[in-house]
Write a structure and sequence with these properties.
rod-shaped; de novo design (two linked rop proteins)
């Protein structure tokens, strides 16, 4: 084998190695973007969960005989805080959204409650958090789409299989949970 042939083979191997490294690094960046996006959803959900006990306490003062509704909200919050994984979190979040809708429907029947400054402040904060959650979900799902596309396209799919990159689940809301709880009276 001539010197030129050895150099050519060596150059091709270096180019292939660089391409593999670049592809691997791209997949790592995409995976980390998905993980970061999920962490942002968790931050927003925690803020939501932290608001709910205060909201329940304010409503309890005005609507103590609405015990079932208040218990459903607390139970849904507890399930949501203990859920792990995208699918379980999405299901728990959908239950919590439904329970909050029931809570705000109960609040409609109490004019004094609707005028309470603590209740109004909590409503405003919850509305802001719901908007942030919606944005975080969208960003997460966009990141998952990029990651899943990245690991499913050729030649990355070969490298992804070798290094154990697997597709991620989307954060899917139930059709009834597409809209945030109504917090404006």
């Amino acid at each position: 084998m001539t010197m030129f042939a050895c150099l050519s083979v060596g150059a091709v191997l270096v180019v292939i190695a660089l391409a593999v490294v670049a592809l691997f690094n791209r997949l790592v960046v995409l995976r980390n973007r998905v993980d970061n996006a999920w962490a942002q959803i968790e931050v927003q959900l925690k803020q939501r969960y932290d608001l709910i006990p205060n909201l329940v306490e304010v409503v309890k003062g005005y609507a103590s005989h609405e015990k079932d509704t208040l218990e459903r909200v607390v139970q849904a919050r507890n399930m949501a805080t203990s859920a792990s994984g995208v699918g379980a979190q999405a299901q728990a979040d959908n239950m919590l959204t439904g329970a909050l809708k029931s809570l705000f429907a109960v609040a409609e029947a109490y004019p004094d409650l609707k005028a309470n400054t603590n209740f109004l402040d909590l409503q405003q904060k919850l509305s802001e958090v719901e908007q942030k959650i919606a944005y975080a979900r969208q960003f997460y799902n966009d990141s998952v789409m990029s990651f899943n596309t990245g690991i499913q396209t050729f030649p990355a799919n070969i490298l992804a299989g070798i290094f154990g990159f697997t597709a991620r689940d989307y954060f899917e809301a139930e059709p009834a949970a597409d809209e945030a709880p109504k917090v404006q009276f």
